[in-house]
Amino acid sequence: MDGFDSFITFTDDFSRYGYIYPIRDRSQALDKFKVFKAKVENQLNAKIKVVQLDDRGGEYYGRHAPYGKIPGPFAKFLSKNGIVAQYSMPGEPQQNGVAERRNRT
Q1: Which ranges constitute the DSSP H helices of the chain?
Q2: Where in the numbering of this chain does the Integrase catalytic domain appear (predicted)?
């Protein structure tokens, strides 16, 4: 598949419309989200306000240190753009039901 061995999906919770982007590794998550954000906000003429994310994977969340959370680039981008990040609990995919259902089909 031209060097791509994985993909990332984004699903609009209201319309259930899905977007899929091939990725080479998880470090591309932010770049693909920026493409998705620009496309959706242009199409709908509305800003993304909340993003429901899979568990606190490093590509989304950053990392934990003894003195607290160290946000990664994805979390920093969301914060800078006024987007609230809601994280599902690890091992609880049903909290991300719409996206998880899409990924199963």
Answers
A1: 29-44, 58-61, 73-80, 97-104
A2: 1-105
CA dihedral of 52, 15, 19, 57, whole degrees rounded to 10: 10
Burial 19-50 (b: 16+ CB within 10 A, else e): eebebeeeebbbebbeebbeebeeeeeeebee
pLDDT tens-digit series, residues 49-68: 999 887 556 667 677 778 87
d(CA 30, CA 16): 21
Q: Which residue reads 């993909």 in tokens?
A: 7
Burial degree of 103 (CB within 10 A; 0-12, 13-18, 19+): middle
Residue 32 token pair: 């693909």
The whole-model pTM stands at 0.78
31: CB partners within 8 A, 6+ apart? none
Of the candidates 40, 35, 52, 48, the one whose C-alpha atom is nearest the C-alpha of residue 83 is 48
Whether the Cβ atoms of residue 18 and residue 1 lie closer than 8 Å to each other = no
